Amino acid sequence: MFVVMKAFRVLALACAFSLVFAGQGPITQSSDTVARPKKKAVDDSSTSSDATSSPAAPSAPAPAPAPESDKIPSKFNKKDIPQGVPVFSTDSVTVSVDVAVLDNKGHFIPKIPKGNFRILEDNVPQQVASFAVGEAPMTITMVIEFSNKFQRFYSSAWFQTLNAAYGFLQTLKPEDYVAIVAYDLKPEMLSDFSTNRQDAYEAMQRLRIAGFSESNLYDALVDTAQRMQDIEGRKAIVLMSSGIDTFSKLTYDKTRRAIQDAGVPIYALGLMQAIRIVQEQYMGSIQRLDFLQADNQMRTFAKESGGMAFFPRFYGEMPGIFQAISQAMRNQYVITYSPSNQARDGKFRKIKVELINPENNEPLRVVDEKGKPIKYEIVAKTGYTAPRKVE
């Protein structure tokens, strides 16, 4: 009996020890965490030490702050720079001019040497810094007038507008980017820049029934030019319009200035020329004057931006016009120079590009393969606006 009781006591002590170790859990080594522990306040540490049964470990003394190193004194002060110290700046103005030289048939004349070009800025000859020539992909925005004023559904002007737009799209190369903008009361982007021609043709499907009778040419042209002015590479606006503006917020003078500042060439295609000839006998003097003024406006926009203007009277002229636009846009001489007048005054400066014989400074004589002289045309922008000084 005594042996049985002794064995029972040993078994009870073993169970008690197992329960104690089970409640304590496995002993693991502590590991550092990524986050730094927050510093506790004195009151918090005292209360926590009272709450725990074990005494709090003494905290390590905080390291003394490192003494601030003496700053190296500057040799010069920004306000008083001694005389004789050179000051350098990199805000020089550089002007790039795209030049197309075309014969009387609208064909590009290649292989003209750099020495035959002369650039005048405000009638002062400039030194050419770089000269390049070649064909490059284009970034083109087609700005199409589509208002109820002229492009009524199934009218002659409606058919001519769509025929010209579809015909020009077919002349583009696969690597060219094109966007479609139509305007009446306000401009609307029908398709963004893309090399996928299906996007452009789907946008053209929307040109069926015009919404408004207003035709705000100035607002649409300036809005498109300002959107394109920061695009790199070859770029151009192909304008298909009657040239008449009815209700724009901008005036004609402000539109000219904005187009000159943007620096995007405009190739204008005047619509309804044949229709105007047929209907001229039924027009009043004011209406005839409005159409003449519209043609002059489109010529001015094209010339001052470095583009060209065309006014076809027959549908058979369209392929030749599209070829001339393609030749002028793609094959260009790119001339860069640093103007002698580096003043940042925000004034407009006129540019004139000439072809000369460097031996005698006379106009260059261009001949064909048979030695006959060729009449040529120089297409380039007429000027730029100098930047203003940044304060």
Ordered list of secondary-structure elements with their pairings:
Layout: H1 2-24, H2 42-51, E1 95-103, E2 117-121, E3 124-125, E4 128-134, E5 138-145, H3 156-169, E6 177-183, E7 187-194, H4 197-204, H5 217-228, E8 234-241, H6 252-262, E9 266-270, H7 273-279, H8 285-305, E10 309-310, H9 318-330, E11 332-337, E12 348-357, E13 362-363, E14 376-379, E15 383-385
Parallel strand pairs: 5-6, 5-8, 8-9, 9-10
Antiparallel strand pairs: 1-11, 1-14, 2-3, 2-12, 4-11, 6-7, 12-13, 12-15
Helix pairs in contact: 3-4, 5-6, 6-8
Describe the overall structure.
The protein is of the alpha/beta class. The chain folds into 2 domains: about 95-135 and about 335-385, no CATH class; about 135-330, von Willebrand factor, type A domain (Rossmann fold, 3-Layer(aba) Sandwich), CATH 3.40.50. The chain is about 30% helix and about 20% strand. It has helices at about 1-25, 40-50, 155-170, 195-205, 215-230, 250-260, 275-280, 285-305, 320-330, and strands at about 95-105, 115-120, 125, 130-135, 140-145, 175-185, 185-195, 235-240, 265-270, 310, 330-335, 350-355, 360-365, 375-380, 385. Strands 7-6-5-8-9-10 form a 6-stranded mixed sheet, sandwiched between helices. Strands 2, 3, 12, 13 and 15 form a 5-stranded antiparallel sheet that branches. It has a 4-stranded antiparallel sheet with strand order 4-11-1-14. α6 (about 250-260) links the parallel β8 (about 235-240) and β9. α3 runs antiparallel to α4, α5 packs parallel to α6 and α6 packs parallel to α8 (about 285-305). The chain is globular. Mean pLDDT is about 80; it is low at about 15-35 and about 40-60.
